[in-house]
Each structure stands twice: as C-alpha cells, then as structure tokens.
Amino acid sequence: MDIMEKAIHSIQDQEISKYPVFVVFKEKEEVGIGLPLVVKDDSNDSWSINASTLEELATKKVVLMENIKRFTDIYKTHQNTACCLVWTEGSGQFVFLPLPTK
Fold this sequence. Notes:
Layout: H1 2-13, E1 20-25, E2 35-38, E3 48-53, H2 54-59, H3 68-76, E4 81-88, E5 91-98
Parallel strand pairs: 1-4
Antiparallel strand pairs: 1-3, 2-3, 4-5
C-alpha cells in the first residue's frame, strides 16, 4: 500500500490529476489503462496494479462524461483512501481502500 500512497502524492503534487485511480487486475494481458506500478508475478496468484487518473478513464470511456461529476463527488468523500478500479474478466468496479494512518 505504501507504493500506492507514494503514487497518489506524486500524481497530485505534480498536478497531473486531483483524482488518481489504481487499476487492479489479474489478467495476463495488459489492460491498456495507466502505467505499471506493480507487475503480477506469474509464479503465484497475485495482482498487477497500474496507476491512472480519472482523466484517462474518461478519455478511454471507462467513466462516461455524464458520470464525471458523480465520480468526483464520491471521490471527495473518501479522504485517506486509494481509489481502485478492480478489473476482472472485462468489467470493473470501483472500490476505495483505506490508506495506513501514520
């Protein structure tokens, strides 16, 4: 989770986006969203994680334009969390995972 927290701060501090999103997936093929942060280890049943943003998800029509405001409103209510798009078998669901408190 530490790597995700660092990525969140980098994305926000560099003003890339106010809305970092992690794409979490098990598929062997790359999902085509975001930049690799954690690459799945083929020797076990682990997950890969890519760092992305709301803007990329909107551009790729994962989040439809008419849902942007709703997404940002929900995102803002989840302080100290990592927004994850859990992608399995061609569909995804957003979840917010608590970040460790210091």
